From TrEMBL:
Cofactor note (record): Binds 1 Mg(2+) ion per subunit.
Source species: Mariprofundus ferrinatatus
Pathway linked to the protein: Metabolic intermediate biosynthesis; chorismate biosynthesis; chorismate from D-erythrose 4-phosphate and phosphoenolpyruvate: step 5/7
Protein name: Shikimate kinase
Entry keyword annotation includes Amino-acid biosynthesis: yes
Length: 172
């Protein structure tokens, strides 16, 4: 394993709105490798948006595509931003557990709700109270995120730049 200068291919996990994509892009630039958003990868392959996929094949159909996508891209030289629900499948959790580093970007549910409320591109919360949905998701997913993560970044009041800095410190 001596190809490439950077051999650290971080995967970012966490609930919707936690900054996986925005911090992932900055991190990728910092590491000098490609940024890949798993949702974008799925959308490109399917030729449909996330809401369209949910409408046509339901959440389980989306999870099938997500699992297939994760299998295809995990381990390639990228910073990977996953979708918040990637930990729902045991198969995905096993893949993530076997990969390092997996980083959980953890923020307060109130902060996340404020970021995603009214976002029509997220079918799980569209037209619903985001905080209520996030509370339900957190109850199920926090044990899974804990199980998959090598590092938990508690963002607290940290902005994007500070969060990036903390992740880089961890990776050093
Ligand atoms: C989902 C999160 C979304 C997307 C889909 C389902 C989830 O990704 O995969 O809407 O189950 O939490 P983001 O976490 O990037 O919003």
């Amino acid at each position: 394993a001596e190809e490439g200068i950077c051999q650290i291919y971080p995967v970012l996990i966490g609930l919707m709105g936690c900054g996986k994509s925005s911090i992932g892009k900055l991190l990728a630039a910092e590491l000098g490798i490609t940024f890949l958003d798993l949702d974008h990868y799925i959308v490109e392959k399917a030729g449909r948006t996330i809401p369209e996929i949910f409408a046509e094949v339901g959440e389980e159909g989306f999870r099938d595509l997500e699992t297939k996508a994760l299998r295809e891209v995990l381990g390639t030289p990228v910073v990977l931003a996953s979708g918040g629900g990637v930990v729902m499948r045991a198969e995905n959790r096993a893949m993530l557990a076997a990969h390092a580093p997996v980083i959980w970007l953890k923020s307060s549910l109130h902060f996340l709700a404020g970021r995603i409320q009214g976002d029509e591109n997220r079918p799980l919360t569209a037209g619903r109270d985001a905080l209520t949905v996030l509370q339900q998701l957190a109850e199920i997913r926090y044990p899974y995120y804990t199980q998959c993560a090598d590092y938990i970044l508690h963002r607290g009041e940290m902005n994007k730049a500070q969060s990036l800095h903390a992740v880089i410190e961890y990776l050093r």
